[in-house]
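Case study.
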Amino acid sequence: MKAGVRQFGTADARLLSEGRLSGPMPWVIAIMMFLTVLAAAAGLGLGGAADRLDTTTGNRATVQIVEPNPDRREEQAVAALSLLQRFPGVTSASRIPTSEMADLLEPWLGPGGAQDDLPIPAMIDIELSPPAYARMDSLRAAVTAAAPAARLDDNAQWLAPLAGLIGALRLLAGGLVLLMIAATAATVVLAARASLDTHRSTIEVLHLMGATDVQVARLFQRRIAFDALFGGFVGLAAAGGVLLLIGARIGALGSDLLGSAGLPPLSWALLVALPVFGVLLAMVVARATILRALGRML
Amino acid sequence: MQAIARFCMVYGPPGAVPLTVEGFQPAERALNSSASIVQFDNVGLRYGTGAETLSDLSFSLREGGFYFLTGPSGAGKTSLLKLLYLAQRPSRGLIKLFGEDIVTMPRKRLPGFRRRIGVVFQDFRLVPHLSAFDNVALPLRVAGVEESDLQTPVSEMLAWVGLGHRATARPATLSGGEQQRVAIARAVIARPELLVADEPTGNVDPEMAKRLLHLFDGLNKLGTTIVVATHDLHLISSIGRSEMLRLDRGQLLDPTGALRHPPKRPEA
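After joint prediction, the assembly is written out as follows.
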């Protein structure tokens, strides 16, 4: 007899009468995991989009020369560009070519709509160092002095509502993930308690034979872990399918912003780790629940 | 493995009927026959807020003794046994088991003590979804015995109680007597120091009752202290060296706690 062994053998997995995957718990966990993975994927995707937005618009601004007279417009554009290229903190300044402007306007004006007689503002795209970006007002004053028809637009300013929306959606996704984790934990608590009630007579017999609380808790832990593993990977597989489908649809849209919400490999790895985390969570919660309940018995 | 070898010496080869005590080695457990294995001192037990089920129990059981607990139905025999097998703590008084105060003992120490006690429940308490083999093996598994070391002793134990052919049967398919034999096999398989049995022969025929009592007798000769609650006077008289505790309305009939010897079996 091996003294001090405190673990039932594998043969004792059948001490709890119901077979594995019996009852609704694996399926409830599958649904929870499905929703958790979707919420987490949304959060991670929006994080990617926010980063992309930040990279695209961060420390960038646009100078528009809004002047109906083409000669004066051209003259002020040259003066503004010359100033900007010499201005401290401006890391790059480039005029957007007329052809590119025409392409940008084509969806609104139609093919060939941007004719010479249409006063299209001259536009200069600039990138600033962070200190210069913080002192945007001095740059605005200098540009306006060199080109009175110039208007300096901070890209981040007009994208701020979108960035705010993305941030709020990310918070919402994070909150949903936390809620799902809490709901999963609550489900495990209820399932563990129900299982404990179902097997109360067996547990009493085990106790009277000298089984420790930890020995008994392990029986439940093992079973609940198996249920959680099954449910977790079913939920992940279903959510993965949905995400791939959504990804294909977004790809077909050809939108830069939506396209940037795609999931990089690291994000996929995090999503795959969610069921593993779910199993650990279920085991810890089940163990705590069972030990607490057993502690009330003699 | 040593434990299993001892087991085989105790129970004999499979199918041995009835169990004889000649092959036993009485000095198997170092006995101190003057030492108390159980000591009750002014023990009272009350369930909830009701009247006391057991009152002012004071007695001691000697290590290696064989005791019968008798009394009319409702006298408190099962409640007293519950205190003995640590299913209940008393409402008042002192209980010492194996020399230690179990009333104030931390809960986490109780499993170690329970492993030293074998229990035959009146209602058997077999685990319904386990086979007879698995039910009997349960105490050994709780104690962490390897699966490979379980097969022989459990099979032999089942054979000894006449259920070798029903090893895979579940309790629901066994008769009352068969269930009782499985319960007894489970209680004694781990060679407890204290064996507590609540009406262990209530559902078996006289021949099986005799065999089971021989088993208890054999265990007792090896040093196991036996406490059997029963109404069966024949059973009591069949163990000559046994002593008797008589309960009535929750109190020992002899308030001094002195134990009486059972009546002698009438000469044929």
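Observations recorded in class. The beta strands of chain A are 60-65, 90-95, 122-128, 150-154. Chain A touches chain B through 29 residues (CB under 8 Å). We will return to this complex in the next lecture.
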